[in-house]
Amino acid sequence: MSILAVGSVAFDTITTPTGHVDNELGGSATHFSIAASYFTQVRVVAVVGDDFTAEHEGVLKARGIDTRGIERAPGKTFRWGGRYTENFNEAKTDFTELNVFEKFQPRIPKEYGDSKLLFLGNIHPTLQAAVRRDCPNIQLVGGDTMNYWIQSTLPELRETLKVMDILLINDGEAKMLSGDSNLLRASQKVLAMGPKALVIKHGEYGSTVFFREGAFGVGRHPFRAPTLPLSEVIDPTGAGDAFAGGFLGYIASQEVINREVLKRALFYGGVMGSFAVEDFGSRRLSKLKREEIEERFEIFRELTHLE
Amino acid sequence: MSILAVGSVAFDTITTPTGHVDNELGGSATHFSIAASYFTQVRVVAVVGDDFTAEHEGVLKARGIDTRGIERAPGKTFRWGGRYTENFNEAKTDFTELNVFEKFQPRIPKEYGDSKLLFLGNIHPTLQAAVRRDCPNIQLVGGDTMNYWIQSTLPELRETLKVMDILLINDGEAKMLSGDSNLLRASQKVLAMGPKALVIKHGEYGSTVFFREGAFGVGRHPFRAPTLPLSEVIDPTGAGDAFAGGFLGYIASQEVINREVLKRALFYGGVMGSFAVEDFGSRRLSKLKREEIEERFEIFRELTHLE
């Protein structure tokens, strides 16, 4: 199944304890698409400005990503600047220049009409819902959101959650969205808002998928995948999108979608997220070999597997 | 193998968002011993005051715990008061009355001399080292410590770490002890101080065991065990000691001690910790059936097990 991904393409200026980059190619659609491209055909819908060159597009094309849905608008591409301190848990934003992204109205090319899986990257929930309506052939919708939308557009977000099959967010977002500081109760409240499955990302501690009763098969319990403890994190920007790309990319590559597939997908999400943080932007992610992915998947499996 | 456990017996006054208890039987030796008692014979060394009644001792005896090493001293038993806020991650201490614990000099009864596994609960590192010297027949030493000892008695603690085979601490303690905020690097630095294995507890995210190269067999990687997301935490006091009790208790019950045993032990640690938080003090822990433990072990396994 091919994936249609909607989100941002951005130029990021990032400072971490280990280095600095200016105008590095980033954005949720970029990180997601590159990660997912190792598993399936990916089609992107996004907007860029005059400063988005053939070289930038080449990074995506080199991974076989269909870029016909990337709209060129007059002006500059979305820019974000931020920095991480020693523990890498949270970025401090230096600046946000929305530029052409401010008036982004996603348009789905006709050629994308047969896509079966949709990823709604972290954009305004009303735009997410509009994209969903424009893609009638979609069989599974995965989506992301963030604190900003939870705080400023909650009614719109709650509408959009009704059309999301799988929501991928982090601990803080799950607690904020549900208003509950207990993770299990928070997951139940979020699942009651619409999604059939909820993936909560715990950063360096891995991730958990919670299922709505009866969704994707039977089973009483959530499922947890680890991450690999890494001796050096270079840049966590985009790790969440890379996680989503590995997770949904693996799902798209499977014949059937059931709990066992979602469990393995959670491991692949962790694998792609762990590669993402090993270099700035998508540098590490865009130059992987499939064998490296399988090798790390096995390490992740060994990390929690009892004989 | 029987376990000899040294630590505190205390009366805890605890306030959580869900309730309050006064003078609840607690302390590291109590929680540890009760958890470990489901797996093996446990012998306790601790000190109590005149206020420690036959009823209190009965809680331990009911679990078959050998209490001959609990010394009665004139005065009151160690008392601690504290409270937890909504997220349960950290206790705020209301008061600490060391009482008879202040002059605690652990004495090992002759009858305990054939113990093979020693647990050094969270007491002054110099006392921990003295106990180790008094137990020449011990084959494996597990131990705990806390921020207070890392900050105020680091040289003594570093001496004691040389005689510990397995150190069990949490993320914050590992980072403080190593001076490194990266968990993998922190683990390597702590292992270089002496322990053959380091168990780092991540609270609601489970735990990881790191091995010194070649210790307990071969293998390149750490191992991670989950915890069960619980819908209600009643009281986290003693969960770390219950974890240690499950972990070392399971190890003591095995014929050989290798990495595979330590991995399963990590799961049993998580299982006992998850029971501990379900009620105040050791109330839940002291009334378990072995079948409940095995049932939860299977749930933990399913939580991370891929087909």
The best one-word shape of chain A is globular
Radius of gyration of CA atoms of chain A, rounded to a whole number: 18 Å
Q: Give the class of chain A from helix and strand content and strand pairing.
A: alpha/beta
Low-confidence stretches of chain A: none
| Beta strand count of chain A | 13
| Main sheet attributes: strand count, strand direction, barrel closure of chain A | 9 strands, mixed
Instruction: Tell me which oligomeric state these chains represent.
Output: homodimer
Largest interface summary: A-B, 37 and 37 residues
Percent of residues in helices of chain A = 25-40%
User: What portion of residues of chain A belong to β-strands?
Assistant: 15-25%
C-alpha end-to-end distance of chain A: 34 Å
What's the arrangement of strands in the largest beta sheet of chain A? 5-4-1-8-9-10-11-12-13
Which H/E pattern describes the elements of chain A?
EEEHEHEEEEHEHHEHHEEEHHH
Q: How many H/I helical runs of chain A?
A: 10
Mean pLDDT of chain A: 95
